[in-house]
Amino acid sequence: MNLSLALATAALLAAEPTNLPPGHPTVPSGTTASPARSPAAAPGATALPEGHPQVDGAQPGAAAPTGALPEGHPPMSGTGRAPPSADELLRQLDSTEGLRDREKTFEIASSLGRLYYVNGRNTDAVIYLLQAELRAKPARDLFLAQRKKLGKAAVPSAAAVGCGFSAGTPVEDMTAAAQERAKKGDTAGAAACARAALAPVLDVGMMRANALFLSGDMDGALAAYAAVLEVEPTHEEALYSRSALLFETKGEDVAALKQARAGFDAMVAAHPDSQRAPMAKRMSTLAEETVKAGGRKKLLASRAEDRRIRLSQAATAPADAPRPLSQEAIDAVQNTERTPELEQGLAKLVDEGEEHLAKGRYQEALANYTRVVPFQPENGRAKAGMAWALVGLGRPMAARVWGVAVQADPAAVEKLGDTLKSKGDEKGAKALWEKLAADAPNYPNKAALQAKLGQ
Fold it and tell me: Helix/strand/coil (H, E, C) string of 37-86?
């Protein structure tokens, strides 16, 4: 927050009407004006102009009285006096009658909104930030219209078209310059200058969206983030924040979850080196899993069912049979001695898993494979079976496990189709081959795979 600007704003808005001539220096409160010059004026002192108000008790040309500035007065350079604190300034603003309804420039409204926002006064911040955005609406409308006229052509930079704006150029002045270009038919120049005018407006829009979120207005926050993205579709913070809020608040709305995933993916694509990128990737995957499950409740129910089945299998499995293992125990399992009996037991589980798959018993097949893969993580046949079982169950993790199986050993996946067909599941075999052909476009044996699909 620019404190001097905020102080100047407060002084401006709190000022009472005056009968002094335009441009006349302000007379501090508490002074008394008199049309006559003071008879006590010191000889030789500079005389006040005829009719100038006289400050009682003060000699013309005398040094300014010392003492504290009035509460909330803008700081005077060189005096050493500390400016009022944020709390003091906020109290002054709060006590200013009619402040919210007074007309303000974009800069004043945004400064007030920022002051309230950084001090945790989110409900008040929203009011002034919205006023600032409304002041900038002509720039927004102009930009969107000119960008639409440009079609697929990129909007040039303000420097490229010579808008000539400086860091302190008011939004209203930049908007006027853009409007003038539009009147002359300079579509690219108008779009560029209007976009430059909207740079501080987007910051205000993000502040308002965040303030709405912090105030508990989730739908309002989503709309505010969307408004920023309408102007700047690759805005990093808006993409991430809107997607995260959609995911958190629309967990049962599949369409909203798809939007959330698209937003996370767009953020990563536009800002791959961002600190948010790793989290956005993880959130995209989680959103995809939630969509496939049909919503957050179904995803949690599916995970709970998986845990229940694993616990049930661990409790009822024969003492000499391999037990389902948690991820934390996989490393220890891999160090287990491979006895002939163990290997035979694992091979039998794989055979039984394929039989279950051919009969459409995907859950039973998955139970077998989860007891094999921790002991034999390199077993392509078991990984292919597990992936196909998850696909058949429609589990959220299916896409990830299937992708690993196809990448690691696509031949084992193709061979699983042969096994399913030999066991009478021709429909399942064809579906598996079609998915393999779609997900492994560079598969070396693709010609033979296409031949199988053509049978």
Answer: CCCCCCCCCCCCCCCCCCCCCCCCCCCCCCCCCCCCCCCCCCCCCCCCCH
